[in-house]
Amino acid sequence: DAGVIQSPRHEVTEMGQEVTLRCKPISGHNSLFWYRQTMMRGLELLIYFNNNVPIDDSGMPEDRFSAKMPNASFSTLKIQPSEPRDSAVYFCASTATGEWTEAFFGQGTRLTVV
Amino acid sequence: QQQVKQSPQSLIVQKGGISIINCAYENTAFDYFPWYQQFPGKGPALLIAIRPDVSEKKEGRFTISFNKSAKQFSLHIMDSQPGDSATYFCAAGNGDTDKLIFGTGTRLQVFP
Questions:
Q1: What pLDDT does residue B53 have?
Q2: Taking Cα atoms as reference points, which of A82, A16, A86, A76 lies closest to residue A47?
């Protein structure tokens, strides 16, 4: 398996534009997570899905952020409109449900909003 | 959301020395405590993990010490090597969900 795949790796956009980040989890994994990494706050959990259903979105900063998982092999995180304070590295991770198992992270998307 | 506090923010150690990173948690429902290692430009990867039914777990040069009553756990890296230079995250999770809450990270630099 190629692991968790995120795209794009880098995104530079202007303030006010819509940004869509994409994630393909590892095949067979039931849970998918979106994290945001900044120097000040470390790794923040934004939202997680289990069997394609959003379970906890309490970490989503505000209504400008939305996430979907239309099927077991694809998820998106959308920011609309984007703001400079959204600049961060966004990670997607997936795990197999059940016994505590390793969370596998993608390589991340570095988002810069200018 | 911050329920896991991690220190120090950065750490500089000489090759061969011991690196120690500490974490404290608040939620007593947590029952899984992993440590993740992240190299520049990469996503975090699982390094070692512990459950609260043991006080220590060792894998090679890496040891987790766990103090349930104090709600604290720490990572010890013995004989630190330049290749250990990375950012380390502690995390805590609850077996009822798959959710992991991460600390803010420690940037470790090991100089030869």
A1: 87
A2: A76
| C-alpha–C-alpha distance, residues A111 and B15, integer Å | 35
Which candidate from B2, B45, B105 shows the least CB-CB separation from A105? B45
* Amino acid at position B5, single letter: K
Distance of residue B50 Cα from the nearest chain A Cα, in angstroms: 10
pLDDT digits (tens, 9 = 90+) for A38-56: 988 889 999 999 999 999 9
Please indicate whether, in this complex, the C-beta atoms of B1 and A58 are within 8 angstroms of each other: yes
Q: Shortest CA distance to A100 belongs to which of B8, B100, B1? A: B100
Judged by DSSP in three states, B48 sits in strand
Residues whose CB falls within 8 Å of the CB of residue A24, separated by 6 or more in sequence, listed in order: A4, A5, A6, A73, A74
pLDDT of residue B1: 47
Probe site for chain B from A43, A55, A58, A97 (most B CB atoms < 10 A): A43
> Omega into A8 within 30° of 0, i.e. cis?
yes
Q: Could you say which residues from 5 to 34 on chain A have a Cβ atom under 8 Å away from some Cβ of chain B?
A: 31, 33
Q: How many CB atoms lie within 10 A of CB A40?
A: 6
Chain B CA closest to residue A61 = B1
Separation CA B99–CA A91 (nearest Å)? 14
Spatial separation of the C-alpha atoms in residues A67 and A20, rounded to whole Å: 9
